[in-house]
Amino acid sequence: MERLWNLLFLWYSQSMAKEPENKEIRVRFAPSPTGLFHLGSGRTALFNWVHARKHGGKFILRIEDTDKERSKLEFEQGIYDALRWMGLNWDEGPDIGGEFGPYRQSERTHIYREYLEKLIKTNWAYYCYCSKEELDEEREAMIAQGLPPKYSGHCSHLTEAPVGKTPQLIRFRTPDTRVEFKDVIRGTVSFDSSLFGDLPIAKDLDTPLYNFAVVVDDELMHITHVIRGEDHLSNTPKQILFQKALGFREVAYAHLPLILAADRSKLSKRYAETSLFEYKKQGYLPEAMVNFLILLGWHPKDDKEIFTLPELTEVFELSRVQKAGAIFNEEKLLWINGEHIKIADPKMISEFLIEKTTELYGKKFDFDFAKIFELGKGRAKTLNELVDVSGFFFDLPEYPWGLLTWKDETSESIKEKLLLSKEALLAIPDELWSYEKISEVINLLAERHGKGLIFSPLRVALTGLKASPEPIAVAEILKKTEAVKRIDHALKKIP
RNA sequence: GGCGCCAUCGUCUAGUGGUAGGACAGGUGGUUCUCAUCCACCAAACAGGGGUUCAAUUCCCCUUGGCGCUACCA
User: Fold this and answer.
1) Is the overall model pTM greater than 0.95, yes or no?
2) What residues does each domain of chain A span?
3) Which is nearest to A468 in space by CA: A492, A486, A485?
4) Over 70: is that where the pLDDT of A20 sits?
5) Class of A2-260 per CATH?
6) Strand B nucleotides in reach of protein CB atoms, 7 A cut-off
7) Hey, which residues of A are catalytic here?
8) Distance, C-alpha A64 to centroid of its chain
9) Which nucleotide has the least CA–C1' distance to A208?
């Protein structure tokens, strides 16, 4: 009987296997709206997106909300927000529709039902009446005997419902076979399906389970490449079995290595800060996030490390993805963020700074924010740091007068030099106020009295800080009135 | 426990059957009015054991270790 069954399966699957067609690449990103958008999800989405764009294919967004209890609309909104923030646009999805919708699994129950019925009709699936308690018992007994725990097949030969029992779930009649598939990243992977037992595919006709729903959707949405985390590698043979039983087309698989925490454990859910928007809040640029995430498990042919999204769609190759898990290294992310700040669009950053400082200080500043950014970009690795290091422009920090000194100079000497600087600045007509002009007059003083003696007190007077960008550039941005005002303030401090 | 996947500097990684390269982080110098940037240099790895081979980090096997799955979650 068993053998006959396997033979039948083999014949069936082979007869239904279709010729590989040379057609458009279609990938999907299929998150569950059951929590805050996770870094790992972001990376999976990114790899899918880049692969699709590289080959001129389609990127489809599907919301897997079959778990009614845990799925929440706010989390679904979080998925859209996160993808948009990263710059990953989708061609089909719940919000924009598409040829193969609906794209929310909760709206597709009638479709799953159809295939569930088909499987039951063809005897590929059957109702299981075992209660959860019975199953647990059975399971523990098997483990106690040192056997691999799997469903016994207790209900598989039933022709009608046992009296007084209601169906608990629908099971797939797993054939005993070797399931082998090619993974783009890992090569050939194979499993022995006899270890699976008869797999649950739905709680009832209207409540499909993950492994089953995925297979139906991927077929109906014409997905050609399934790119997902390695945690799904063990699900793949099960899904292939369903696929074959339903006569569906084969898809190409690529299982990405997992992102690991510093202790090499799975990164997910363990830490709150694995939420993507946590990084946005901390001042990370989406470009940097994307750049960092792509480098976690992928590397170009050369040693280039800083990429933009459009560049990635040129050079990315799925086959160059790493097999081993990668530790999420915040320090490298920070560095990459700094690099992206250096090449960021000054207009974009200026707008951010204007908004942020208005909010922070409660008023609008008439500064050239692009120049503020220019001075800050080498000093800040995040947007938040950029705001911090530019703070003295908006609010002069309080400082002790001693900060104004230089080496062993007397207070009289410092006072005198500050006065010289003030007069030099005052002498510049407003319409000639520029970096070049300020540089000219201040450097003249510096040549005469020594650089440190001129620059150091001037810096502290203008910024209130011992360490800061060059005073000339600061003075230029501050403009004459404010610069002179700050020097006067310094002069008053000196006893 | 069973099944599966994986293994190069601390971290991300390149690489090849014949000097193990880059990046982050670390260290030391240089540039500079300070800080930062920038530049130069230094230190740092093929998990272990067997095979195959003239030769193994590379190919094969074993061990060890890590991770994943083993749900009426996805």
Assistant:
1) no
2) 2-260, 346-394, 401-493
3) A486
4) no
5) alpha beta
6) 1-8, 10-15, 21-25, 32-37, 66-74
7) 269
8) 18
9) B72
